[in-house]
Amino acid sequence: MPHPEPLHAIVPAGGAGTRLWPLSRRDAPKFLHDLTGSGRTLIQQTYDRLRPLTDGGSLAVVTGRAHAAAVLDQLPELGAENLLAEPSPRDSMAAIALAAAVIRRRHGDVVVGSFAADHAITDPAAFESAVREAVAVARSGYVVTIGIEADHPSTAFGYIHAGTPVADAPATAPTARHVLAFTEKPDAATAAGYLATGEYRWNAGMFVVRADVLLGHLAEQKPDLAAGVARIADAWDTDARQEALERVWPDLEKIAIDHAIAEPVAAQGGVAVVPAAMGWDDVGDFDGLGALLPAREDGLHVLGDGDVLALDASGTVVVPGSGRTVAVLGAPDLVVVDTPDALLVTTREHAQRVKSVVEHLGPEREHLR
Questions:
Q1: Which strand ranges, in their side-by-side order, compose the sheet holding 317-320?
Q2: How many CA atoms lie within 13 A of 188 on its CB side?
């Protein structure tokens, strides 16, 4: 049996994780934190999952200049040549396309895969199996996404509508199906209706595709963005990199890969989905964090080693980080995040609204430490 084709992985590491404030800040976003109590940060866990799949391939991280040093400190095995530092955020399409273009120049028309730096997965074996199947389908010319098993009607995720099996998929990809459409985050009734059909999966933003196919779709859908990325990639491994970045990058269109490629190409029949159940979580807020952390005997979900006391506070999530003792009495399902310069108290029910606190604070107060 031939050895599976290696994956050339791309890890976009951006965002501020504002729903996890004050633990996650612009200067220390959530991918740089250990949010599962494993002893490894989220980006380190992402790297650990991808390394077996990139045996013979490569792994590149795309992040902002402000976080480049921290990423290399956490991933010394990565190597500076595989870190692509963005001058400013331009959303996921520019980041992924630039990495894919640089990889194509270095390695040819290989299969690339994009996987966010700040997600948690409890079943790495299931993840590896799904990605290997996606690589096999991608070699045939499809854009392939991993569809996460939806175990409840969440309104926090986008959905993938899966259609008929991919008839021309190789034998090593038996579960691949055509994608009929991507849909945005629905209301509760719509989400429940999606689950009732059995045809929908959560969209985790994982995409696997041949480099030539990805960049060809980009040239068709967003020609100016494709041309700009190509100019930067041509200069990347030369002395002209910095000049090209400063001249071209600020004018690149700011758009997500979902809108730039996945949605229009799905409408053309060019996107496939590989379904998977891998214990995926995007750790999107403190309610989600509480679901990841095991409950103590007193019912608390605690991240860290601080001194925490709870009486009649089952379900409460506590992140002690100031050195103070945190005591919670008679208040179940709270969220208490205690840092040296900021204290957050809310409920798990309102965890999605933490972003609004950051918006009210403004950039000057959000990141103080």
A1: 301-302, 317-320, 334-338, 343-347
A2: 0
Task: Please give the model's pTM, rounded to 2 decimal places.
Answer: 0.93
Coil, strand or helix: which one is 320?
A: strand
- Amino acid type, 231: R
237 phi, psi to nearest 5 deg? -95, 30
In the chain, what is the straight-line distance between the N-terminal and C-terminal CA atoms, in Å?
55
Instruction: Tell me if 237 sits within 8 A of 36, measured CB to CB.
Output: no
78-118 residue pLDDT tens: 999 999 999 999 999 999 999 999 999 999 999 999 999 99
Class of domain 8-281: alpha beta
What does the DSSP assignment read for 341-361?
Answer: S-EEEEEGGGGGGHHHHHHHH
Cα atoms found within 13 Å of the Cα of residue 155, Cβ hemisphere only: 6
* Sequence spans of domains, the chain: 8-281, 286-366
CA count, 13 A, side-chain hemisphere, 231: 15
* Residue tagged 């976003």 (tokens): 29
Residues 6+ apart with CB under 8 A from 216: none
Amino acid at site 204: A
* CA 158 to centroid of chain Cα atoms: 13
Angle subtended at Cα 122 by Cα 46 and Cα 169, rounded to the nearest 5 degrees:
75
Q: Retrieve residue 174's tokens.
A: 């038996």
At residue 360's C-alpha, the angle toward residues 358 and 363, to 5°, is 60
Burial of 335: CB neighbours in 10 Å, binned 0-12, 13-18, 19+ = buried
Query: For residue 4, what is the DSSP state?
Result: P
State pLDDT tens for residues 160-177. Answer: 999 999 999 999 999 999
**Under 8 Å CB-to-CB from 240, ≥6 apart: which residues?**
none
